[in-house]
Amino acid sequence: MSTAVVVGSGPNGLAAAVCLAAKGVQVTVLEAADQVGGGTRSGEAIVPGLLHDDCSAIHPMAVGSRFLRGFNLQRYGLSWRWPEIDCVHPLDDGSAGVLHRSVEQTAAGLGSDGTRWRLAFGYPAAQFDALSEDIMGPLLRMPHHPLKLARFGAPTVLPASAFARVFQTEQARALFGGVAAHAFRPLHYPMTSAIGMGILVAGHRHGWPVAAGGSQAIATALVTLLGDLGGTVETGVCVTTASQLPQADVTLFDLAPSAVAGILGGRLPQRVSRSFSSFRRGPGAFKVDFAVEGGVPWTNPDARRAGTVHLAGDYAELAATERDVHAGRMPARPFVLVGQQYLADPQRSVGNTHPVWTYAHVPNGYTVDATEAIVAQIERFAPGFRDRIVGQAVRSATQLAAYNANYVGGDIMTGAKDIRQLVFGPRITLSPYEVGIPGMYICSAATPPGPGAHGMCGANAAHLALDYLKRA
Q1: Name one Pfam family in it (predicted).
Q2: Given 23, 150, 189, 287, which residue has the most CB atoms within 10 angstroms?
Q3: 389 and 271: one domain?
Q4: Looking at residue 454, what DSSP letter applies?
């Protein structure tokens, strides 16, 4: 029987382990933390019984994942819950851009931009399940659906600032810009439309759900499935050198490229070592979880029904904010993302006290407390929020890095999503999962298709490992 070691139990590491074990490989997963899951961990951070997601929380890219759907994880307790409204981007005048799962319903709320929204997202949303075969893997390969990919891909090369000019209303521009800003990149840079379009199209096809019982349910389901397939997980095992790796036919790393370079050291080819060691990091996140009595008193009524709320003012303010953060300057009014997962999954609340999940974009390695900036941004669109806070838990950019070593400087994207790293991953190659040592692969969110709980980075790397085992 072939053997495999997977270092790291984030969703990609677990996905790789499951794919290998399903083909009869004996798999051992090594996890440095005491709890599996990486970015999909959840816990009771403030009030007993009040459930917060530690990082990854809303899952438009995971719910339709070919990997997750292929293993019928409902059998292992994973179920999805959808909010009434996917996302709202409120403006200072009380209006908002409102994102529904339905393209038509979203378009209907955007006034004169309705037709433009429908033209931009209607066709690719209808074709998303076919498109995902191409966009959820390495981009530089022969596509399965070249015409569909070309039609979808042409606008993605644009800066988000250029794409936003398609829309005439501030509500539509802000709504698109807030989703595009998930890339943690200045919005005037080329290809910043790509992540925004990918999330929007996936959401219009499958919605923006949460995992019932917290994002930890994704990891728990995968670990249970892995156990049924004969695999094992060992927690509290921190691998820092190659000598600590058990003997195995294949080894996969759900780690940041710099960590892989540190472990393998001189065994890596010099060109790979240089690329991994110089891998560029993106801005950081500053996360605050709140326990809120009665929920957030949003001025805009749609925000009270939305699973996600983006806070940044209009498009121009958002673009300026992202430029500042990328340049290492902390804006007075940062882009704040608010998660109200309890609206779709009420079991997370305790009576009338609700968990509110937030983070702000901050410079990488930012060490100053940004809690007040987050509270002020919420107060801006929900006066009286401050008075409803009954508890809070903070993870700064540096604390996020301590919580998950892949989040260097608070970079929850596992690397800057600039053109080179978005297209190629950690190094310029047609095979971004290979590290230049036969039988060894990297499968973290630093590789295509990037961040999210979809598991496709791990699944893609595992397929290469299986091909290697067949040839060996």
Answers
A1: NAD_binding_8
A2: 287
A3: no
A4: S
Per-residue pLDDT of 21-46, as tens digits, reads 999 999 999 999 999 999 999 999 89
Total domains in the chain come to 2
| Range(s) of the domain holding residue 261 | 3-32+237-279+415-471
Distance in angstroms (rounded) separating the CA atoms of residues 238 and 120: 46
Residue type, 373: A
Whether residue 397 contacts residue 325, with contact meaning beta carbons closer than 8 Å, is answered with: no
* Token pair for 408: 């260097």
Same domain? For 382 and 249 the reply is: no
DSSP calls for 202-248: HHHHH---EETT-THHHHHHHHHHHHHTT-EEEES----SGGGSPP-
CA–CA gap between residue 246 and residue 450 (Å, rounded): 28
* Strands 210-211 and 3-7, sheet pairing: unpaired
Please provide the size of the chain in residues: 472
Same domain, 286 and 275: no
Q: H helices within 283-364, ranges in order?
A: 315-326
- 180 Cβ contact partners less than 8 Å away, ≥ 6 residues apart: 160, 163, 164, 187, 192, 193, 195, 196, 197
Q: What is the CATH number of the domain that holds 243?
A: 3.50.50.60
Q: Are 436 and 423 in contact (CB under 8 A)?
A: no
Name the token pair of 83. 């909010």
> What single-letter DSSP state applies at residue 17?
H
Instruction: Check whether residue 376 and residue 290 sit in a common domain.
Output: yes
Q: Are residues 335 and 247 in the same domain?
A: no
Same domain for 378 and 462? no
Roughly what angle, to the nearest 10 degrees, separates helices 456-471 and 11-22?
A: 40
- Omega within 30 of 0 (cis) for the link into 143: no
Smallest CA-to-CA distance from 260 within 46, 425, 17, 430 is with 425
Contact 350, 49 (CB under 8 A): yes
The answer to whether position 215 is within a domain reads no
Q: Is residue 260 part of a domain?
A: yes
pLDDT of residue 129: 87
In terms of pTM, does the model score above 0.85?
Answer: yes
